Amino acid sequence: MIKIGDALPAVTLQEYSEVEGNGCSIGPNPVNVTQAAAGKTIAVFALPGAFTPTCSAKHVPGFIQKAQDFKQAGVDEIWCVSVNDAFVMGAWARDQKTDGKIRMLADGSAEFAKAMGLSLDLSARGMGVRSRRYSLLAKDGKVVSLNVEAPGEYKVSDADTLLTQIGA
User: Fold this and answer.
1) Which residues of 21-133 form beta strands (DSSP E)?
2) pTM of whole model > 0.70?
3) pLDDT tens-digit profile of 55-85?
4) Of the residues 55, 88, 106, 116, which is catalytic?
5) Which residue ranges form the domains of the chain, and what is each CATH number?
6) CB-based contacts of 145, cutoff 8 Å, min separation 6
7) Active-site residue, 24 included
8) Phi, psi for residue 20 in degrees, rounded to 5
């Protein structure tokens, strides 16, 4: 499992964006994690799946509500990573109204989750390999804070916990 001081995995995630008003879409576009994190402070939270109950009702909304607090604390970007395809993440972004607040990044083949050592096999529940629920703060691509949930829990990966750790 990734730990404090480690670099974020050098993998490529996918991001789907829309152009407001004309119905045209941009993407999915590749996001090279190493390049995208270089020189930035990034709050990352990962979760098992888009549109799932805890993720949609608590996890994403908490980061949306605290987006300005993260910016004031020196965080350049907030990333939500989930093992879904970019189109699903784009639809979830529209549903959750994350535009301008959270980058919704797809880890379609669970490469990021596996490289982090935080994959979770939910095949018995019909969901396949997913990501464990966690949050972290990365500075220039290196993990400086990490909060990994126990299976089925939502206690330490929330926005408030991460904000407290960065002194906001």
Assistant:
1) 25-32, 41-47, 77-82, 103-106, 119-121, 129-131
2) yes
3) 787 899 999 999 999 999 999 999 999 999 9
4) 55
5) 12-149 (3.40.30.10)
6) 4, 136, 137, 162, 165, 166
7) no
8) -60, 130
